[in-house]
Amino acid sequence: LEKERGQVNFNVEELTNIYDGGAEETKLRRKVADVIQNDPEVRCKDIGMMTREERYIDGVRRCVYLYKVLLPREGWTPVSKEVKDYFKYRNIGKERSFGVHAGVFIPCLLSFGSDEQIAKWLPLAMQFQIIGTYAQTEMGHGTFLRGLQTTATYDKKNKEFVINCPEISAMKWWPGDLGKSANHALLMAQLVIDGKKYGMHPFMVQIRDLTTHMPLPGITVGDIGNKVGFETTDNGFLHLNQVRIPRENLLCKNAEVKPNGTYLTKASDKMVYGSMVRLRAIILESEAVSALGKACTIAVRYSLVRCQGELEPGKPEVSVMEYMTQQKKLLPYVAMTYVTHFACLKLSNQYNAFTREMDNNDISGLPELHALSAGMKAVVSEQCSDGIEILRKSCGGHGYSNASGIPIIWSSAVACCTYEGENTVMLLQCARYLVKCINQVQTTRMVGSVAYLNNMTQSTCHVDSVSGFKQLDVLVACFQYRAREVLKTAALKLSHLTKHGMASYNAWNQSSVELVNVVKAHITQFIVTTFASGITELECTKPVKNVLQQLCALYALSCINASTGDFLKVGYLSPRQCDLAHEAELELLSCIRPNAVGLVDAFDFSDDLLQSCLGAYDGNVYERLFAWAKKSPLNKTEVTIYQQYIQIRLIGRRKAF
Ligand SMILES: CCCCCCCC(=O)SCCNC(=O)CCNC(=O)[C@H](O)C(C)(C)COP(=O)(O)OP(=O)(O)OC[C@H]1O[C@@H](n2cnc3c(N)ncnc32)[C@H](O)[C@@H]1OP(=O)(O)O
Ligand SMILES: Cc1cc2nc3c(=O)[nH]c(=O)nc-3n(C[C@H](O)[C@H](O)[C@H](O)COP(=O)(O)OP(=O)(O)OC[C@H]3O[C@@H](n4cnc5c(N)ncnc54)[C@H](O)[C@@H]3O)c2cc1C
């Protein structure tokens, strides 16, 4: 790898600083990483050999130590930048404990609680005197929130709410930290007053005794069992049987129930969805893009040291990175990590701007933010988790071992396709907004992520050279035209179906397969446009700008070459231009290849964080693999009990004969 590093033609540290958002950010992140790596109590462990129970207990222990010992020792608070960096870069799949408490329960308390309620519960939550979960999803409903069955019926006489799960499908199912850790739940239930339903509302419900940690009367709670990943998280079930809570436990920033049962709404009913917009807008970096970056680091470093086969007959074996097919598997995902990282940054900045507007009671930006966050969450989580699996396979047999570190990264990242809104449902939410926009574009000027719809002129691409397809303005135009045209076609189909008498809900269902593709085109347009404009404004050395431009072009071309049908159907690219775009991608792979190790080094993931025998900085793969395998519990004895049992059985049988 040192030889590879010698040929990198840009300043890796400069790129790290750009990726982090500045040299000071890099310094802070490294300070946090040093603290973690040098403290045996929280440093990342190789949990590949641990049982589920050991992982859960280890995760809880580390998190309690982090909050109770490390933070006070370092002078940090749970919301200080260092802790955010800790969780942004913590090892995916390793420290999930209290992820929902810290990342969902507390923010939702701030979103839904009145000032008095925040003053009451926030200090307790921040000090871990109460551990909370966010209990919305039920065994029978996760997507269709209007179908949630848990009820909160107001009892005027006692000024209480009676929380009840009327049937097994109403049981809360999946909430993180619920199974064994939480003693409180921020519970979403259908509010009922005098027999009238008011929709989903947030309630604070204590579920366990604060001293004994035993479930309170009427509460049945536990862990839902083993999963694909998230092994350190006790995703749980919660059944409530006529559980009574005080009237004051309805979190009432947006709506309240007076003592006499009068219902008072204070904000748009869509604000109850606000918590989901927040998480969709901010989790992508840590849960999807960072995971892809780790997998890229492992797969690229391994591919550079793994020698397999002759490229030129009779010559020494080459590293598998010399094969174009390997470069095609790896380098577009290195590009995707950079490109989506900056698009996610733009989305989270847009969310932060919206929260400031919301403080001034202006929620006009919510529809665009909901659509963009839903679309980005679906497209980025799917592209990243699909990419991680391709990167795992690119490592051959050793990629199938937990020693590579990639399976645990994938098993965690792929969950992002489901939680916080199942991806297809999220794509269709974004499609709702896009169809509204295209139908208004004749009379209303579009802004934000749909600004490209203002240009409705028909055109075609005029590029007639391979190098022309490496120009960012050409690529941005390709994506904007394709996104607009596929949206127009889908909207026309919708209006055609309804004009010919089909009910609108049925027309929507009949068009939903195209609409999913429309949103993917819209979001990749947003990602490419964002990165291309970001590079233009970026102040950096020429070699770094050049490599970023190559990455943007590579990501764009890999997307175009994966969906040339769209570009042909809308008449923007000719078959010959599709061939030129394909050649442009291959040329870019060769241009970027010499910088591959520098591009993943710039992500700056420490060996401790990667926990990978294949992806360590020094590239000593085989020594690490053998040392790792020897730790297998099966190797504690030369002859395992099972082998002895088999021998006895076989010997016994021979004697019998
Ligand atoms: C580190 C890892 C941590 C992991 C933590 C994981 C935590 C979780 O998973 S918590 C559970 C997450 N669950 C979800 O996200 C549920 C997904 N489902 C939904 O959002 C809704 O059911 C939904 C909107 C898709 C469909 O519901 P439905 O009632 O049919 O709403 P629908 O008719 O489509 O929309 C109603 C209106 O609300 C709007 N709306 C819907 N959702 C939102 C939102 N989040 N924000 C703003 N507006 C919204 C729609 O745009 C629509 O507006 P309009 O009528 O003007 O077009
Ligand atoms: C690791 C993990 C952690 C989680 N943590 C939490 C948590 O802390 N708190 C919490 O409340 N929940 C949590 N969840 C639950 C999660 O939010 C739900 O699983 C998610 O919202 C999807 O809902 P569902 O499971 O009911 O899927 P469903 O909605 O039943 O989806 C099943 C299939 O139906 C399709 N489908 C459903 N509705 C439509 C539609 N209208 N149009 C087209 N297709 C549709 C979907 O696309 C999907 O293919 C977690 C889940 C996971 C996996």
TrEMBL record:
Keywords: ATP-binding, FAD, Fatty acid metabolism, Flavoprotein, Lipid metabolism, Nucleotide-binding, Oxidoreductase, Peroxisome. It holds the Pfam family ACOX_C_alpha1. FAD binds at residues 137, 176. GO terms for cellular component: peroxisome. One of its GO terms (biological process) is very long-chain fatty acid metabolic process. Its cofactor is FAD. It is found in: Peroxisome. Residues 11-131 form the Acyl-coenzyme A oxidase N-terminal domain. It comes from the Eukaryota. Belongs to the acyl-CoA oxidase family. This is Acyl-coenzyme A oxidase. It comes from Ciona savignyi (Pacific transparent sea squirt).
